[in-house]
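Batch manifest, entry 17 of 40.
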Amino acid sequence: MGTAGTKGATLIIGNCQAGVQLANTLRELGDTAPITLVGEETHLPYQRPALSKAFLKGEATAASLTFRTPEWFVQQGIELVTGEQITDISRDNDGGTAAGAGGREFRFARLALTTGAAPRKLNLPGTELQGVCYLRGADQAASLHRFLGGARSVAVIGGGFIGLEVATAAREAGKQVTVIEAAPRLVGRAVAETTSDFYLRAHRSRGTTILLDAGIVRITGKNGHVTGVELAGGTTVPADVVVIGVGVLPRTELAERLGLQVSNGVVVDSRAVASDGVTVAAGDCANMPNPSPADYGNGTLRLESVQNAVEQAKTAARSLLGMEAEYRTVPWFWSDQGDLKLQIAGLSAGHDSTVLRGDPESGKFSVLYYRGGRILAADCINTPRDFMAVRNALTHGLEIAPDDAADLARTLKESAVPRVPA
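Output type: structure tokens
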């Protein structure tokens, strides 16, 4: 990446986790040039993971989840612009210009896209009814919280992590909850069958109805308000509230206006630099080379996690300043569903075997993923020590043999040994 313009102003579009981290890292690295952070939401930048958990339970607000105070942005010399949608963007020899919907223009020498992702919409009759909700931002969470207050029954379309977290919050609030999943198992794209089966049994035993292989015909309503979800077999699931959680799509509109390469996100290299060689992108909107040390650069992927947003933003900041930068890390994720805490270390794609450590019936166990006898990842349910041990092993190139992983007499930390080169 060239150094032209590295002393000029930086414009960061997207005041999310990645955007705030990128701005903060620029300052930590000694950058004193102007920084402007622009976002569409009117709130101060805040933590999103709690929206499907503590926020819905009334235990948190957008204000309580903010990353930084207004004073911090002022002290750091970062201009925070909220409630402003960037509608157009162009580049020139000195950087470029971004136009806001309110008429304001933002000149920049350096540009960062941290535009995130938007909920995937369902093309079904009835999605416009009152009480049908998506969940991505604080305003959507607040709307869902209001609807839940007067609801008796809730239908959640989508049995992924967000869907199950929302279902848990609604059930713990005393609602009758039904999860409707089109696939044959829950969170099937993210976890092994053992983990998936455990969550199916766990949620059912706690009172949530789970429908698998379920096709949806339409969302039903009366007097403009939702009343249920009609399934392909003719059954209707009664619901005062319907939550649609079927994934997200990366926001790439501005990248496309700039002529950047886009494929399931803004395509970036290991330095978080886009196809034009000067723009950087980080977070949910970026499609990057596999950052996992064991499979570094093997294919591309787009990760949706706090850890990825933070670490990739740090790499992007270094790239903007012309510093050495390479995004190589062990991805990790988590999902809190009531008393069930899932922590995932690594990426399980391409595994050819798994090892079960512990008894799922106890509610505390781990599933370790292997390929060719080498560890790739682990699902850890209420086993934080296993999570830390696998994450550490993957980070430092250590190996945990399958037989040792299954031996409960030994900790995974004790079982981790230097990897023998292939």
